[in-house]
Amino acid sequence: MAMQVGDQAEGEVMIDINTTPLIDVMLVLIIMLIITIPIQTHAVKMNMPVGPSATPPKPPEIIRIDVDFDGTIGWNGVIVASREELEQRLRGVAAVADQPEVHLRPNKLVAYKSVAMVMASAQRLGVTKIGLVGNEQFMN
Fold first, then answer.
1. What span, in angstroms and rounded, lies between the C-alpha atoms of 82 and 128?
2. CB neighbours (10 Å) of residue 91?
3. Predicted confidence (pLDDT) per residue in 84-112, tens digit
4. Taking the mean position of all CA atoms in its chain, how far away is CA 28?
5. In the prediction, which pLDDT does 53 show?
6. Which of 5, 57, 91, 108 lies at a C-alpha separation of 20 to 30 Å from 65?
7. What is the layout of strands, in order, in the sheet containing 73-75?
8. Backbone torsions φ then ψ of 59, nearest 5 degrees
9. Strand-pair category, 73-75 with 62-67
10. Domain boundaries, the chain
11. CATH numeric code, 62-138
12. CB 122 within 8 A of CB 102
């Protein structure tokens, strides 16, 4: 309740508005607004798969094919005698359901046709996991 202090004569009409009820109503509305706003959570809800994954996955098998400067091809450190032997080994890789990774490592001085021959044979025979390794030697 507002109380007026001042020079008001008896019987005069009060001209000032009483703001106390307005402030009370505004406070009630603010409190109701705060209560009804849902709490914002900054989390991403994800459905993660559950299952028996007690054993860690085995690392993929890697086959390293080296192409030397004179065109000699090596299979995991063993010299491959001919293109037919290389293609026979690549057929074996392509026949496996979970194909091993084939890392092709060309020498810096090798002719492009030797590397392209290995890549074309691998593609033709169905090897899907093949990549060039050691590209940092070609930077200069």
1. 22
2. 13
3. 999 999 999 999 988 999 999 999 899 99
4. 48
5. 65
6. 57
7. 78-80, 73-75, 62-67, 101-106, 130-132
8. -70, 150
9. antiparallel
10. 62-138
11. 3.30.420
12. yes
Alpha carbon 120 to its chain's center = 31
Structure tokens at 107: 């020498």
How does DSSP classify residue 11?
A: T
Tokens at 76, concatenated = 């995991």
pTM reported for the whole predicted model: 0.57
User: What sign does the CA torsion over 73, 127, 100, 112 have?
Assistant: positive
Instruction: Find all residues with CB under 8 Å of 76, minimum gap 6, and list them.
Output: 63, 64
Closest of 72, 64, 65 to residue 111, by C-alpha: 72
Strands 130-132 and 101-106: parallel
Place of tokens 């037919």: 84
Q: Which residue bears the tokens 């009409």?
A: 13
